[in-house]
Amino acid sequence: MLDLSSKSLGLWAGLGTAAFVGYCIYFDSKRRSHPDFKRKLREKRKAASKGQSKSAGPQLPDFSDQEAVQRFFLQEVQMGEELLATGDIQNGVEHLSLAVAVCGQPHSLLSVLQQTLPPQIYQLLLQNLDVAQQKVRVHASSSMMNAMRGGGAPRESSIEAEDVE
After folding, report:
1. pLDDT per residue over 126-158, tens digit each?
2. Which letter, b or e, does each residue of 54-80 get, where b requires 16 or more Cβ atoms within 10 Å of its Cβ?
3. Which of 28, 106, 107, 143 has a CA 20 to 30 Å removed from the CA of 127?
4. pLDDT at 158
5. Residues 132, 49: contact at Cβ < 8 Å?
6. Which domains are assigned to the chain?
């Protein structure tokens, strides 16, 4: 019936591969020559860069809402523990340092963490704590400024650190 030798099988595989590569090249040239391609590509890159700058850490809560601060604290502790358990030490320490920064009693939390974490990770936590506290201070002061201006929940705004005195 159908006798497929290794030569004919190789020939068919080569022809199929060539046809597929040819179709990919054709499709790519059609896509690139579309009038909206460059505009959409620029918009997508701009949105991605904005997404990266906003995702430089977790979204901090509204500090006038104690419930939101408590939820944030518990969420950050849980996320930090999970990340440390999976081996992502840098992100785990970042989440734990944010939890310590928003904690009402940071000294007691630090003493618990010192007993439970390995010494190297605890030292890394102490190093990241200053950065986390500064993030919290800037966010809290911008929240206060927004609340004084418009009253209510903080809005998305870009108050620079030098604007807040």
Report:
1. 998 888 888 888 887 777 776 676 655 444 444
2. eeeeeebbbbeeeeebeebbeebbebb
3. 143
4. 42
5. no
6. 61-150 (1.20.960.10)
